[in-house]
Amino acid sequence: MVKRNHVAPGYSFPSASSKEVWKHHIPPVASVETLDDPRIARLLGVPPGTAVLRRFRVTGPESEPPFQINVSWIHPRVADISGVSAQAPGPGDWLYRLEQAGHWPISWMEIHRARMPSKDEAALLEIPTNLPVLEIVRVGTSGGDGKPVEVTEYVVASDRVETIHVLHRDESARDPWPDDAENPPAPDQAGES
Question: What is the pLDDT of residue 130?
Answer without folding.
Answer: 98
